[in-house]
From TrEMBL:
It comes from the Eukaryota. SUPFAM superfamilies: alpha/beta-Hydrolases (SSF53474). This is Alpha/beta-hydrolase. The lineage of its organism: Eukaryota, Fungi, Dikarya, Basidiomycota, Agaricomycotina. Residues 55-316 form the AB hydrolase-1 domain.
Amino acid sequence: MFYLRWTKLAAEPCSLPSGLSRIFVDTENGRLELIAAEPPSSYVGPRRHPIFFQHGGMGQAGVWIEWMSYLSQVHNIPCYALSLRGHGLSWYPSFISMVWFTTKRALANDLVSGIKYVEGKEKTEVVLVGHSSGGGLSQIILDAGDVNVAGLVLAASIPCYGSLGVYMNWWKMDLWFTLRMWKHFLHPNSPLSNTYLVKRAFFCDTKPDSEVDAFAKNMSHYESFLWPLGMMLGRLVDVRNVVRRISGWKPRSCRIMILAAEKDRLMSIKQMYGAAEHYRGGVMDLIKTKLDSQSSDHLGDDVSGVRFRVVGGAGHHLQNDVQWRVGAREVVEFHEQL
């Protein structure tokens, strides 16, 4: 199937399972789609920190439906997922405006608006889960001091030290990348223009093609070039600033989790582990200044309060791949120990 489109996504909402609902958050630019998942009405325990999910490039809030249903209905954790402008049912800039003039900062502002809405509704900080380029945005807003969060999960995310290596991996994986881009008149979705390319970039080899096609039909029709380009060169964030915007640091708990996918052809395990090491250094700086220089072994088995986990067999879209339950359970375990 061929996926390139030059007009905005038709406003056809994906169906939501029981327990999930759709909200729209008003901003000065337009409305943003927010999918919410509440625990079952029979649940009578304490209200827990909500989890806020942020999709990556070409994505939308619906990519989190499986995880949100599992976390909210089985583990009683309220969940929210945002569609940035130009994605899902959020407001759509024109092709030229989105592709050439929408910056990563503009998209980060959408993320901040979504989080602040949920904070106001829930009266508490969120646990922020960012995937791919959405993980990059998650780090950017914390580095800038826009919000505080109760925990941070970077799932197959752009590393804190920049994404040049990620796109080098993509070019190595797809030798026709550049020529195809010119053939498609520099359309930003060119690297994901058919079933084979989407599957190779996002999923493991055993993912059925029919499911890949169903996933691709909900991808945004065009994407911002300035979003990935703005994360490519140089350091993305100062990890010390990110760590300081995460609340509740205490002995024997982890507040950051780096979640890698074993078969990810874009964000390798080596790159994700490197990001974990960077954040461990940032947490140690915090320990020296705020926890009276406690040694790392006071923080349990996950050295320096940063948990690193690998989802075996999964591709880049680990939340939508065959092994999605494995990653979801890792998020539950991380949330439980906060």
